[in-house]
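Homework help board

Subject: predicted structure for assignment chain

Our instructor gave us this sequence and asked us to write out the predicted structure in C-alpha cell form, then describe one feature. I got the C-alpha cells but I'm not sure how to describe them. Can anyone check?
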Amino acid sequence: MAIHPTAIVEPGVSIGRNTAVWDNVHIRHSTKIGDDCIVGGKSIIAYGVVIGDRVKINSFAYICTGVRIERGVMISAGVTFTNDRFPRATTPDLKELLSSDPDEHTLTTVVREGATIGARATIGPGLTIGRFAMVGMGSVVTRDVPDHALVYGNPARVAGYVCACGQPVAGATADTKTYRCESCSATRQPGEKGLAAVR
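My C-alpha cell output:
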C-alpha cells in the first residue's frame, strides 16, 4: 500500500494490499478499497463507498456515498456519481441547512465487474452499470446500462456492444446469436442483459 503524503485518509478507511492513493485524494470514513487498486490524484471518495480489487480510478473523480464498485472497473478522469434525484440544500422555508448524511432519498449505484466509465461522464443515482459495459466520455447516464453495452450521449443510449477485452463488436445486437471478437478471438453471445460468454 502506498499513500501520498498529501492524501487525506480518514479514520475507519480500509485499504487493501498493493493499492496506491495519489496526491490530494480525500477518502472519507468507513470506505473500503480492495487490493491492487489505483486512486488517482485529486479524487474524492465519500464515506461508506465499497470498491473491489483491481479498480482504476483516474484523477478528479467524485464517488459519492451509496456507490459500490466491483472488481476490475475503470473509472476515468473527472467521472461524477450522484445519489439523490431531487436534492435540496435547505428545508423548504430556507431557514435550516439539511444534513449531508444518507437518508431515505439516498440511492445506491452499482458498477459491475469489468465495466469502464469514460472521462467526464456523469452517473445518475440508483443505477446499475452492467458487467463489462462501456460508458462513453462525457455521457450522462440516466438509466441502467446492460452487461457489455456501449452507451454514450446525453442521455446515454445503447449504441452497440463491446467484448470483455474492450473492443466493439461489429454488428452485434440483442438478437445476435453468437459472434467471435476480432480482437481477442473470444466467442460471445448476447443475452437479456448484453453479451454473455458461450459455454
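Reply (TA_rk): Your C-alpha cells look well-formed. For the description, you could write something like this. The chain has a mean pLDDT of 92. That's the kind of observation they're looking for.
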